[in-house]
Amino acid sequence: MTYRVSPQVPPPLALVNARVVDGARDQEVRGGVLVLDGTIAAFGPDVTPAALPAGIPLVDCRGDVVTTGLIDMRAFVGEPGAEYRETIASATTAAAVGGVTTVLARPDTFPPVDEAAVVDFLLRRARDTGRVRLLPTAALTKGLKGEEIAEIGLLLQAGAIAFSNGRTSVRNAQVMRRLLAYSKDFDGLIIHYAEDADLVGDGVMNEGERASRLGLAGIPREAEAVMLDRDMRLVNLTRARYHAALVTTKLSVDIIRAAKAQGLPVTCATSINHLTLNENDIGDYRTFLKVAPPLRDEDERLALVEALAEGVIDVIVSDHDPQDVETKRLPFAEAEYGALGIETMLSAGLRLVTSGHLSLPRLIRALSTRPAEILGLAQGRLEIGAPADLIRFDPEEPFIVDRKKLHSRSRNTPFDQARLEGRVKLTLVGGEIVYEVSGAGEALLS
């Protein structure tokens, strides 16, 4: 690996001879992208070596895909307080290798992101040690306890991009109503993890025949749907912006579809794990596949894929949740929830393209364009003047996932030893190369 200090203004660069995939326009063309002063200066079929000014450095993509960098709306980055699981440096390195150029950091850290000083700490750490953009998600409630509303206005002013309670729900409906009403005054976005903890009880995997065969307590689909339905009714009262952090069942999809049909300001995401894996992959108690919400059955997975293609589900997230090996090397019922995802999200998502369930532009829309629209970001779109957050990847290059070679500090990937396709070869953030694979091998640049 080699390192370098980024100049204030990145040098010009042209990516040519590429399949340029545009998630916003749902199209793919042969051509290239010209980058000047860290922004997109031109893109499409007219960007060819012959048409470019002399002296512009060229990257011959040799038919690889060039598109906007991915925006991951749900990832645990470890800092502050859980650096043994992940750090901003390791998380953003894994992101760069996986083609993710913007990461939303979860607020359930130690201490939680419920004060402006913690937001400022994250932004400074990201500036000093991060390889890609990192945006803090602040806590909805103080201490993530679900009781007292956090200072939403001050947290937004400090630089928070949205508000969440991490992996817990706000159980008190009155508190949630006040949160929605208060956030609307600031045009804030609430990202809520919808799950009724009482219905979850002692459950550790999806309720059904598979759980019974394994002798494990199940979690009913209704645990997610009941809380989500409550939230939609509160959104109808307040008309505040709401994003469901994870939707994993057909029941939840139907609730979101109905809310959108009513014109409510609602969006939702599902994780790459729930789109590409099901409860059968747990096999003989594989704890690396113990996630929250739990992996569902195959019919539910296919319903999620269909909802994504339809546009009911807006966003795919990694739900990157690194865990120490000691918390996973336990009986399934006792093991911690969580799986890595940020480095393999794109490659796993390409399984949906290969299977014919999704077009490549539609996949990129869910991974990049739509998150940018929801968050109001300038990146995530192929537009002249937009930040040159771009990636190049070969969607057909196969590789075997080796957890020991992943760049995260933890190793709990559900795709260990899986055969995936789609290796990222180049990642640019603001026109600056932060990751590149060349004939000499892998290089992480800063």
TrEMBL record:
Where's the Amidohydrolase domain? 357-435
Q: Which Pfam families match?
A: Amidohydro_3, DHOase
Enzyme class name: hydrolase
Q: Which residues cross the membrane?
A: none
Q: Which GO terms describe its molecular function?
A: allantoinase activity; dihydroorotase activity; metal ion binding
Please state every residue range assigned to the domain named Dihydroorotase catalytic: 64-250
Q: Which UniProt keywords apply?
A: Hydrolase, Pyrimidine biosynthesis, Zinc
Q: Which InterPro entries match?
A: Amidohydro_3, DHOase, DHOase/Allantoinase_Hydrolase, DHOase_cat, Metal-dep_hydrolase_composite, Metal_Hydrolase
Could you identify this protein by its name? Dihydroorotase, multifunctional complex type
Q: Provide the E.C. number(s) assigned to this enzyme.
A: 3.5.2.3
Question: Which processes are annotated in GO (biological process)?
Answer: purine nucleobase catabolic process; pyrimidine nucleotide biosynthetic process
Q: Which GO terms describe its cellular component?
A: cytoplasm
